[in-house]
Amino acid sequence: MYSISNLRMAIQKSGRLGEKCRDLLEKCGITFEGQKNQLFSRSMDYPLDLMLLRDDDIPALVRDQVCDLGIVGYNELKEKVLDKDGAENVEILMNLGFGRCRLSLAVPEDTNFENLESLRGKKIATSYPVILDKYMSAKGINCDIVEISGSVEVSYAIGFADAICDLVSTGATLQSNGLKEVLPILESEAVLVRNARKLSDEKEELITRLMDRIDGVLKAKRARYVMMNAPRASVDDIIQIIPGMENPTIMPLGQDGDKVAIHAVAPDNVFWDTMEKLKQAGASSILVVPIEKIIE
Ligand code: ATP
Ligand code: ZN
After folding, report:
1. Cα separation, 197 vs 67, whole angstroms
2. Fold type of domain 101-188
3. Which residue's CA is the nearest one to ligand 1's atom 20?
4. SS3 per residue for 169-236
5. 126 Cβ closer than 6 Å to some ligand 1 atom
6. Does the beta carbon of 187 lie inside 6 Å of ligand 1?
7. Does 1 score more than 60 pLDDT?
8. How does pLDDT run across 5-28, given as a tens digit for each residue?
9. Whole-prediction pTM value?
């Protein structure tokens, strides 16, 4: 049933990234049948098979060419492959703009932390021992790194460690454990990664098409379609107000042509303050609408 000419992509089965990966693929017109608890899932509308895995396993499976592609947090890719073994066998194709977080050092709230020197010779618990070790070695700080298996163990780790190094997005979890974040050591988001070896022409073409679609989805997510009416004399000013707005369509309104309608794609979201500036420049009936897909 699973054709070897299909692309094979590894994504997280559940967790923080699973649903978001499926959403992204769906927006690319690639949907899946079958239950989430299966290991494989085949797309009905693209020659793509998904492998649904724990995120920890994804980097090595892409490195070892069990899968052609994977979606995984940059943090996990760095820990399991880039900083460890076989980095030359994987290639990051694009950042996907979701799963943003940072790997940070944190200490109990009442600890005095000046700078990294404060951690010299101290015990640090983390599920990212490879990244942390590389970071600390590069800074010339010797410390005792203890591996723990995940965030669930953080509260327990505080009992025996002087510091922890863990993923943070808002910091609320650290705080509820009586910790304060003192130093981010890595910024991360979900990435699309591939095995670096060349594939068949058909598979290479499928990857290019997939990337174009993902690119279109990501651009569309940021972009807005903007419409407004304005006096013809204000058009130049108005175009200046929206950063990156290119080649707007300008159509005369009514018979005398003093007023025009301006339609354009703005590459980034248009916020209230920009709309207020447009109004001050003479625009009226300003509409900002989301865009579903873009192909350029
Ligand atoms: P699995 O069962 O697949 O091993 P997990 O518990 O190791 O799951 P999740 O907590 O689902 O992993 O996180 C998956 C990825 O989501 C992380 O590796 C990271 O890239 C990203 N992420 C984004 N925000 C956070 C956060 N606040 N805490 C942890 N991970 C985050
Ligand atoms: Zn995991």
Report:
1. 12
2. D-Maltodextrin-Binding Protein; domain 2 (3.40.190)
3. 73
4. CCCHHHHHCCEEEEEEEEEECEEEEEECCCCCHHHHHHHHHHHHHHHHHHHHHHCEEEEEEEEHHHHH
5. no
6. no
7. no
8. 899 999 999 999 999 999 999 999
9. 0.90
Q: Give CATH 3.30.70.120 domain extents, the chain.
A: 223-290
Fold of 223-290: Alpha-Beta Plaits (3.30.70)
Q: 205 near 198, Cβ under 8 Å? A: no
84 CB within 6 A, ligand 1:
no
Neighbouring-strand partners of residue 266: 224
Is pLDDT of 75 > 70?
yes
Look at the domain 7-99+190-220 and name its fold: D-Maltodextrin-Binding Protein; domain 2 (3.40.190)
Q: Are strands 7-12 and 48-53 parallel, antiparallel or unpaired?
A: parallel
In the chain, residues under CATH classification 3.40.190.10 are: 7-99+190-220, 101-188
